[in-house]
Amino acid sequence: MTGTDTGTTSGAPAERPRQRPYAVLDGVGKEFTSARTGERETVFDDFSLTVHHGELVAVVGASGTGKTTLLHLVAGLEHPDSGRITLNDGTLADGSPGPTGANGTDGAGPRLGVVFQQPRLLDWLSVRRNVELALTSTGLDPAGASQALADVGLAQYADRYPSVLSGGQRQRAAVARAFAVQPELVLLDEPFSALDQLTARRLRLLLQDLWTARPRTGLLVTHNPLEAAFLADRVIVLEGRPARVHAEFAIDLPRPRAPEDPRVFTHQTEILAALG
Ligand SMILES: Nc1ncnc2c1ncn2[C@@H]1O[C@H](COP(=O)(O)OP(=O)(O)OP(=O)(O)O)[C@@H](O)[C@H]1O
């Protein structure tokens, strides 16, 4: 394991942060009805995975294996048909039919920060207002928006509208919105795959800076083995239908990491090989 920790500042006896489970999927099953054939597709069957406190787990795998579904299950956007999902020891969802919304909970689940492939900003609000809205809707002080935008290098663009920003700046704003709420869990769904290579590289470095400043717990879905090796503490390779963990890699490198570090490259090569 690396030398980073969860950022917990309490003087409690040294805890092993990456050994405490945070997100636990236990025997999860998930089926969909295929829009094309009308048949049931079992994406997950008896699937288990644990993400530990302070750990960033990257999920890679061929298209259609269920990476985004996995993220949606953890976000509470999809409900498992069977099994159980717990976040920080609280049940997020179990396989029983329950109320919709926050996946069968009373809606007071843990605070999530989510970054999607597209920034999903509200075009009629300034960047600052977009971030403020995330803060107020989670009961936080909107004044935190300025710092969150400064943290991603957007201080001087705070009062502009998303439409006048570049794609990279918009995605920076989306990252600011996700991190502004001080999330317990960060969910990243191919966050940089819509950007050109240079911009994606800069955003990865930014994400690493944010993570190094304050390590968090996270799940990153990506098609990019370099991104997985560079950012994650652990990489899982999903394969098959129903999906199973075909391979798993611990990325035991200290942060900050350099994308061109040969050790990152070695892990990238291993992941690529596992992807076949
Ligand atoms: N809401 C839905 N309704 C019906 N089928 C769905 C739904 N969501 C996902 N699926 C199906 O579940 C399977 C897994 O989809 P998912 O998007 O999780 O895969 P993925 O690994 O993220 O793929 P990609 O890398 O292409 O984004 C696919 O066959 C998809 O069509």
From TrEMBL:
Composition bias, Polar residues: 1-11
Transmembrane parts of this sequence: none
ABC transporter domain residues: 23-265
Gene Ontology molecular function: ATP binding
Coiled-coil annotated spans: none
Region annotated Disordered, chain positions: 1-23, 88-109
SUPFAM superfamilies recorded: P-loop containing nucleoside triphosphate hydrolases (SSF52540)
Pfam families for this protein: ABC_tran
Keyword line: ATP-binding, Nucleotide-binding, Transport
PANTHER family: ALIPHATIC SULFONATES IMPORT ATP-BINDING PROTEIN SSUB 2 (PTHR42788:SF19), TAURINE IMPORT ATP-BINDING PROTEIN-RELATED (PTHR42788)
Protein name: ABC transporter ATP-binding protein
Organism: Streptomyces olivaceus
